[in-house]
Structures are given as C-alpha cells and as structure tokens.
Write a structure and sequence with these properties.
28 helices, globular
C-alpha cells in the first residue's frame, strides 16, 4: 500500500465529512428548518467544496462534495418533507464513502445542564394570594389577575404555551456551526451607545478559553447592566457579522445559576401587556421549586399506576421545566388525562343526579298524534318517526327527559317540537320553547301555529280546542308582555315561544311540563337551568342544527340522550357546491345577478376575522360598499354584522325575509337565522377561514324552497392544501362527516359551545383526541362503578377536583 493510501482516513475530507454528518444530525433533530448553520445548508455545502479544493482533497472526495452541494442547492426553498428527503439523500452519499472513526460514532446531543436552584422556603403557601409574594405589588397583582392568576397555587397550573429549545452551552470555537446557540463566558468589554432612533445599543464581548463572541441588545429606555469579569450565560440566534459571531438580543442570566432563561428548554407562558416574560418565568419557577413536590394528586394511586401516568408532583415539574421534549410531552399527556377525566366524571355525576330526580310521566296521546300526522302537509321521514318515538318514550317515564336533538337545517326539528308540546298540552300542562333570536322565535311561533291550525279539527276533537300559542320577546310592549305573563301564570295559554325573555324574573307558568331550547349551544348551562326552574322538574329537549362529531357527543353532551335526524324531508332541493379560486370570483357574482333577475335572493358571507368583531364588522361594511358600487350595483343590498344592535339585526333579517332586499351581505351571524325559501345563492368569501362544519351550516341557509340552489366557496389563496380541504365541502353533503373531518383538521375551538356547556374548560386536552377521550371514559366508568358518589376516602381529592372544576362554570352540582 502506498503512503498516500495509508493516510487516506486522515485526509482533509474525513474531518469535513464527519462534521457534515454531525450538522445533518442536528438538522434532522431540529425538524429540518435550515437553522443549524449560519447561512443555511446550501451555503455551507458550497463553502465545503471550496475548503476541500484549497486543502487539496482527493478527486473522489471533491466529486462527493459537489454532489452534496447539488443536492442541497435549493434546500431553503423546499417544504419540510422534501428537506428531510434531501438530508437522507446526502447521508446516503456520505455513507457511500469509507467512514472515519469520528463519522462512524453516533452523534448525541449533549444533555442540558441540570437545573439546580435554591428553594425559597419562605415562599407563601399555595392558598395564599399573590400579593403575599415579595416583589409582587398591586400593579402586578392586577396584571396577573388578567391571566386568571390570583393565588400561589394558580401559578403551578399556569402551563407554558411552548418551550424554546436552547441547546446546552458550546465553546466559542464550536458556535460557527449553529444558528441558535448557547454560550457561557466572562464579560471582557461592555459598550453602550445611543442609536439614531433613540434606542440603547448594548454590546458585550464574552470570552472562554477558545475565543470570543459578541452579544448585542437593543433596548428602549434602560437595558441590562453588565460589568467586566462577570460570568454570563446567553442563548439565542447567532449571526455572522464580518468575521465575528454575534448573539442578537439573546436571553441571558448569570452563568453560575441553574439554567432558567438559557441553555435549556425555556418555558414561554401566556402573558399580558405589562408583564415581562422573564419575570413571570422566575415567579412561576419559585412556586414550582417550593410547592410542586407537595402538590396533592387528585387521582387515586391505583388509577395512576393502571394508566402508567407520572405522579402529579413529577408532572408539574416536567410540564414547566422538562429536561427533554419527551418529558414535556409525558407531562402534558398527564394533565390532558386529568382534564378529560374530570370532564367525564362531571358528566357522569350530572347524569346520575338527573336520574334520581322524580319527574312527571306524560302519557302518549296516540290517537291525537296520529291525527296530527295526517293533517301535516307532508309525511314524516323515517328519521322523524324514530325521533318522535324516542321523545314520547322519554316523556312517558317518571323522570325528567334530558334529550339532545341534532338535525341539519331543514331536517324537520320544529315539527318534532310541535308534536312533543302537544303531548304536554294533552296532559293538561304547558310547554315553552326558547330560541336565541327574536326573528327565530317569531318563525317558530308562526310555524307551530300553522301546524296546529291545519290540524284544528283533530285537535279540537281531542283537546276541546286548538292549543293557544303566544310569543314572548323583548320587542313586545310592556303591556303586551304583562298580558303574556298573566296568561302563562294563570294557564290561559298552552305554549309560550320566545327568546331569553321567557326565563326572566316575573315569568311564571301554572303547570310547565316541557321546556325546549333551540340552537342549544347558543345558551349557557345557567339559561337551561333557569328554563327548567320555571316548572317542577319539567322534561327538557334541546335542539341544534350543528352536526355533532362522536367525540363531542361522548364528552360535551355525554349527560344527554342523543337523537339524530339523519334524513332530509323529500322535496328538499340538492345544493350544488362549487369551489372557486380568487381569479374566478367574478363567475360567482354573475351567477348571483342572474338568480336575482329571476326573482330569487342570495347571501354573501364575508371572511372571518378571528377574535376581532370590530375589524370583522369594518371589513363587512367595506365589502358591502364595494359590492354596492361594483359587482352588485343596482341590486338591493342589506348589511348584517355582529356590531349592529339587536333591533337593527332583526330589521335587516325581516326585510330580507319579506323580499325587500335582493342580497344580504353578512358575517357569520347569519349562521343561525331566518328561513328564506326564496334564497338560492350563497357566496362565501375567504372560505378557508371557516371550519368545514360552519361552511356546511352556511350552505344550509339556501335551497329551502322549490328552486335549485348553489353555494360558491371562494378561497383567498391558491394553496393546494387549502383548496384540497375546501374540496371536501364541495364533494360532501353529509354534515356529520364534515364535522368529524373538521375536528381532525382544526380541533373544536368553541364552535360547539364548550364555554356554554357548563363543563370545565380545557387547558391542555383536545376534544379531537378520540383515543384519550375513550381512555378517560373507561377510567371514569371504573371509578363511578365502585364509587358512584365519589364518597370513598381514596377519592376525596378527586371529588374536590370535580367540584372545583364545576364551581368555575357556575354549576350547582
């Protein structure tokens, strides 16, 4: 063998390729975000070719380096999945060479420094107010209260939104291969200057045995003060300025303290204006260090062991200050389990309490209902017959019915409600139906009266009269409301239909046996309880047009019996749904003009503006003006948005219903609205901003008459992912399937009324996690099977946790 051949393992390419393998390992671990080396992998690969050429590398090594550079040439432009493939292909190229000893060894990321901090034994107890903590003055108490933080114990439960993964400290000579790094060094120089914009530029030179780095902060007002000789730890993004490495606005802390703000997985907490993240982190760390180890575990030990969960004390430490991302995930899984278990137990206790209440059995008036059916202008669908039988079965039992009726817009829920109210009237009692808006209450009253009048002959034969139906809304005069209240209290009316006015003080019933709430997720648990309190344990039927995925049926509504109207009445026109790209928008408006020319009406739904009703209203107003002057010039347009007063909304909807308007330009408030059979065209702008189930709800507002209807979904982007998601709506008319897909893609948000459900809110868990929901349902069933009232001593902490969670939402259970 020649001397040159024997020296091959020590040639310049061996060290360079070993270093590249190490860089690729870091890149993969970081999710292929092209942040491992300054300038990106493409530039690093080009520079690698230059270094090897200058070092006189062998031709085979140069060819390999050039192939690597070609594979990485457009790395920064690739999506993450393609980047991962490019990294794998580069690895294959490198592995085709004879590995050096350094390259053959696996690359392991050094462990984060151990977080050891001095425990403040004087830190106040968990039940103490935050004002008792040294350094927390009145102003900070107010700011913390905005976050729902009132006691020291609340700090333990204030979980991070995310963690910044700062690597362990590296030597100065090693930082050239990192875009985000950590460093510990001694302050050599401090330079403070004022910029032209009045900011303070603080430049600190830090050194260790291998070299120097610079850290630069830009601050308005006063910044941190550093002294030469001080040992600092910094973590943050690195930039190459000339030939100097610079940390730009890094996080920092004294190097001799246990890592909290640097060199570790640094928690980032929900905050508010006026609270500095580092101060909040320090405060929570003091609470965790002092009290996490002694935190009470609400779960019995047998359940923790059965489910292989970390103990609560350990999970509290890991969720705030994990040593690894795996620890953080395990901790969040533990708290997600806790939240869903409390949810399932709350549901179980509610159902058990409801089953123990004595109610009034209402016999089914078979002949009356048969006559009512025959008088209808349509035949009930098989689904309507099934649901009516379920409702009548519940009403005939000696405990109050608690049933949820889910059916899409137009599926025939109102006729079920009308028939159920006849059962109550036939028993000599009264019924009430509560709707979320005045116009919907008026619509229900008009429909129920019409149905009863059509069956007047059979109703008179069995009841001696047609049931007396009255409307109670805020629109009535004081005198009219007083007359309705007197009639309800004296029993001179059989059915009261109204808005939340029906649950106000002063509204009483002589004998209320059935309460119905329409669009139930628009009402909170307090409103439903108030509705029930208008009678002596009346039966309760809640209705919704919102398709309810199975996971939510098992959780939010697990204490209710569920009925589904899964068939539309015959004669309903199919709704054609088309997906349009931004440059195809004009086609939709031209179609809308043709529909109006034929005497029809239509809707234009404006894009959703998350968490900003003010901006959404302004955007809707601008869209209204743009359409009035442009694409829909000459048509009669109305505007509906959430910032209008209730009476203004009602006036617009009435005008649209009565045909005084051709097109209604609206925000999402139109979702629960009036029935306009003449509306045949729906245009949804910015469709990608809405959930699939919500788009389906919008679509259900048209096609309710004799004419075919069209729904146009207009995306504001050509993104393939967005268009693919919206295509699901265009191809699917099954609202339940869309709701299931929506839950998988977006999570539940609050569209299904979690805040209104009267159940504990979720901080960590997701209602889209079917596996964990099933797991906690099974666990809750095991607990309640052996201890239905949570009265056993081993479940005392669990019972307290359930009661505390329900107390937060005002449940009297």
């Amino acid at each position: 063998m020649t001397p040159g051949a024997s020296a091959r393992p020590h040639a310049p390419e061996a060290a360079e390729f070993a270093r590249l393998r190490q860089i690729l390992a870091y890149e993969e671990r970081g999710g292929c975000r092209d942040r491992t080396v300054i300038g990106g992998l493409a530039q690093y690969a080009r520079n690698l070719c230059g270094r090897l050429q200058q070092a006189g590398a062998a031709p085979a090594a140069m060819a390999r380096a050039e192939r690597v550079a070609a594979l990485l040439a457009r790395y920064a432009e690739l999506p993450p999945s393609a980047r991962a493939e490019a990294v794998a292909r580069v690895r294959a190229v490198l592995d085709d060479s004879v590995p050096s000893p350094e390259a053959a060894a696996p690359v392991a990321r050094p462990a984060h420094p151990v977080r050891r901090r001095r425990v403040d034994r004087a830190f106040p107890a968990p039940d103490q107010p935050l004002s008792a903590v040294a350094g927390v003055g009145a102003q900070r108490v107010r700011l913390l209260a905005r976050l729902g933080l009132h006691t020291v114990g609340d700090l333990l439960q204030h979980f991070p939104l995310r963690h910044i993964d700062y690597p362990p400290p590296a030597r100065a000579s090693e930082l050239f291969f990192q875009q985000v790094g950590s460093f510990e060094g001694v302050v050599r120089r401090v330079d403070v200057q004022r910029t032209a914009r009045g900011l303070q530029r603080i430049s600190v030179t830090l050194a260790d045995a291998t070299g120097e780095v610079e850290a630069v902060w830009l601050r308005a007002g006063y910044g941190p003060r550093f002294q030469p000789g001080q040992r600092l730890a910094v973590s943050g993004e690195l930039a190459l300025v000339g030939r100097r490495l610079v940390f730009e606005n890094p996080d920092w802390e004294p190097a001799d303290e246990g890592p909290l703000h640097t060199r570790c997985l640094v928690p980032v907490y929900p905050a508010t204006k006026g609270l500095v993240q580092s101060w909040l982190r320090e405060l929570i760390a003091r609470a965790v260090d002092r009290w996490a180890a002694t935190a009470e575990d609400p779960l019995p030990r047998w359940l923790v062991e059965d489910e292989r969960l970390p103990p609560r004390a350990e999970a509290l430490r890991m969720v705030h200050f994990p040593a690894t991302r795996e620890e953080a995930a395990r901790a969040r899984q533990r708290f997600a389990f806790d939240e869903l278990l409390l949810l399932q137990l709350a549901i179980g206790l509610r159902r058990r309490a409801a089953e123990q209440v004595e109610g009034r059995a209402l016999a089914t008036p078979v002949a009356l209902l048969d006559g009512f059916r025959r008088a209808l202008p349509f035949a009930l669908t098989a689904a309507q017959e099934r649901v009516l039988a379920e409702v009548c079965h519940d009403l005939a039992r000696p405990r109050p019915m608690t049933r949820l009726l889910q059916g899409e817009v137009g599926s025939g829920k109102t006729v079920i409600a009308a028939a159920a109210m006849l059962v109550a009237v036939a028993a000599g009692a009264q019924a009430v139906l509560m709707a979320p808006t005045e116009i919907l209450a008026e619509q229900h009253a008009r429909t129920v009266r019409t149905l009863y009048e059509r069956a007047a002959e059979v109703l008179t034969a069995h009841l001696g009269r047609v049931p007396r139906v009255v409307l109670l809304t805020g629109r009535l005069s004081a005198g009219e409301r007083r007359q309705v209240r007197l009639a309800a209290a004296s029993g001179h009316v059989d059915v009261v239909i109204g808005t939340q006015a029906v649950i106000q003080d002063g509204v009483e019933f002589r004998d209320l046996a059935l309460a119905i709430a329409d669009e139930q997720h628009r009402f909170g648990v307090r409103q439903r309880l108030a509705l029930r309190e208008k009678g002596a344990a009346p039966h309760l039927l809640v209705m919704t047009a919102t398709p309810i995925p199975r996971t939510l049926a098992l959780t939010l509504y697990g204490d209710l019996d569920l009925s589904r109207l899964d068939m539309l009445p015959p004669g309903r026109q199919p709704i054609r749904t088309v997906l349009l790209r931004p440059d195809e928008r004009a086609h939709a408006y031209e179609r809308l003009r043709r529909e109006v020319a034929q005497g029809r009406q239509g809707y234009v739904i404006c894009p959703l503006v998350e968490d900003s009703p003010h901006l959404e209203a302004r955007a809707a107003t601008e869209e209204y003006e743009r359409l009035r002057r442009g694409a829909l010039r000459g048509l009669r347009l109305g505007l509906l948005h959430g910032r209008l007063r209730a009476e203004e909304k009602e006036a617009v909807m009435v005008a649209f219903r009565d045909g005084a308007l051709d097109v209604l330009v609206a925000t999402a408030v139109v979702e629960v609205g009036v029935d306009v059979p003449n509306a045949t065209m729906m245009i949804i702008e910015g469709a990608e901003r809405f959930g699939l189930a919500q788009l389906h709800q919008f679509r259900g507002r048209v096609g309710r008459g004799e004419h075919p209807a069209t729904c146009a979904l207009i995306a504001q982007t050509n993104s393939p992912e967005v268009l693919e998601r919206l295509q699901i709506v265009a191809e699917t008319s099954d609202g339940l399937a869309l709701a299931e897909a929506d839950l998988r893609l977006r999570g539940p948000g609050d569209y299904y009324g979690l805040r209104q459900s009267g159940l504990p809110t979720l901080q960590v868990a997701s209602l889209g996690d079917l596996e964990l929901i099933e797991r906690t349902r099974a666990a809750a069933a095991r607990v309640l099977a052996t201890d239905p009232a949570l009265s056993h001593p081993e479940h005392a902490a669990l019972a307290r946790a359930v009661r505390a969670a329900l107390a937060q939402v005002g449940d009297p259970s």
